[in-house]
Amino acid sequence: MISFVSFVSFTALVGLLSWWFTRREDHGDATNYFLAGKSLPWYVVAGSLMLTNLSTEQLIGLNGSAYLSGTVVMAFEVVAAVGLVVMALYFLPRYWHNGIATVPQFLERRFDAQTRQILSGMFLVFLVLNFLPFVLYSGALGMNGLFDVKGILGVSEAASIWIMVWLIGTVGAIYAIWGGLKAVAVSDTINGVGLLVGGMAIPILGLLALGEGSLWTGVDVILTSQADKISPIGAEDSAIPFGALFTGCLLLNVYYWCTNQTIVQRTFGAKSLAEGQKGVLTTAFLKLLGPLYLVLPGIIALEMFGPSLGNGDSAYPRLVAEVLPPYLTGIFGAVMFGAILSSFNSGLHSCSTLFGLDIYQGLINPHADGRRVVVVGKMFGLGLAVFAMCLAPVIANAPDGLFILMKKLAAIFNVPILAVIVMAMTTKSVPAYAAKISMFMGMASYCIFTWGLGETLFGFKMHWLHFVFVNFAFLCAFMLLMGKLSPAGKTAQFAQNLVGGSNEWKPVRWVSAVVIIGTVGLYAALDILGS
């Protein structure tokens, strides 16, 4: 009962505060609804970025991977800091200079309206099929494991999954569709504080349990018994080879933090370019803390329970149940619920933005006013929410597991989108037709490599992260060649102009350097500890 009351109370508090801070917003104005009226301070931008990124597929999935493979899997979390530096220094100033609300709008100015619509369609397909249902289903699994919904309600496991999917989806839709970006960002920030506190508490409690009340004894147990799991420098046959940090892992992080509409939309709502850059780099520092709550708990679970937990997906829920006092279960459940909601409602709001601005106003009804665009975007978002809630339980029987399936599907879209945007920003000669061909050709080449050739290239086995880099280089080379053969008549000067002077955050470069040094230092320190 105490767990239930604390869960409901914390969840209600977040909803009340989100309503209070956004009650006077005019959602008839497209800028207010889609970009929070460009009013977000840096700490709200940072909180929203963190919570949009973090959800149960990471808390459970990444810790599960650490349980199996050790700290090498922290690459997806730590290299993100480098991607955020690229966003702060390079991508965000160019986006800001062009006053855009969606990434596809940027491509329209560089290429043409059709390129914008193709990219919007790719983003929507990716979010609808590869993001929203997975967030809902993994969230339902996590909440069921924490609160035993099946036992409490006396229903089957399948029924409990349906119930939690519709509960999460309904609440998330309310935030995203009727609250707008500012309500999403405010709730993200509040839940972000709770998630950082709760997430950091789990490894501390786990180490205390291993050390029989002594934190440092627990640390010593891990360093002694699990020394082979501590070094993040992966061999070529490991889950993430060290060389992949400089190829596919880096590119995927640049894609995610610099071009993914769900992520970058948070920065478009900042008060100013400087506030956006501060928020992005604050997130970069927070990502360097990620291994403490997204990797270390998996290694603690390995020491505590041994290698008998199967695929590792149960490692984190099992550890939480073991070390968390019962009176804190409700609050931690509310924080997890907030993380799930954050990812879902952020994705849903981005779908509404893409459809309203890029498809409806950009293609169907160019003369629609802001109020009409918002209404259409909300209705589209509501339909997607219902569709995602219906689809989520259906993916339960994915043969490769949810986490692997999600990553493989995501990689189909990531590289072509990133290659086209990089070419749009850095070249003047690449024509629009080359960008369009590259988006479809990049998707096809990855599918052929992964499923047609069994992850081999010219007969040689290749780690999929290395092929991500090969695919990116191939697409860029193709577009550059087409630019030489038939140069574009339209220039990209607007895309290459930086916003300088007082508009940028003054310390942005040296703070970025500190982030890079911190990233290298973290890898070096863990390698020394694990040697």
Put the structure in a nutshell.
This protein has 531 residues and is mainly α. It is built from 26 helices and two strands.
Strand order of the largest sheet: 1-2
Unreliable stretches, pLDDT < 50, 5 or more residues?
26-37, 492-501
Instruction: Please write the CATH class name.
Output: Mainly Alpha
Quaternary form: single chain
Distance between the termini: 47 Å
Largest sheet: 2 strands, antiparallel
Topology:
Blueprint: H1 2-22, H2 30-35, H3 42-53, H4 56-59, H5 61-69, H6 75-78, H7 80-97, H8 103-110, H9 113-130, H10 132-147, H11 149-153, H12 157-210, H13 215-225, H14 248-258, H15 261-268, H16 273-288, H17 290-294, H18 296-305, H19 315-323, H20 326-364, H21 370-391, H22 402-426, H23 432-452, E1 456-457, E2 460-461, H24 464-485, H25 493-496, H26 508-530
Antiparallel strand pairs: 1-2
Helix pairs in contact: 1-12, 1-20, 3-12, 3-15, 3-16, 3-20, 5-18, 7-14, 7-16, 7-26, 8-9, 9-20, 9-22, 10-12, 10-20, 12-13, 12-18, 12-19, 12-20, 12-21, 14-22, 14-24, 15-20, 16-26, 18-19, 20-21, 22-23, 22-24, 23-24
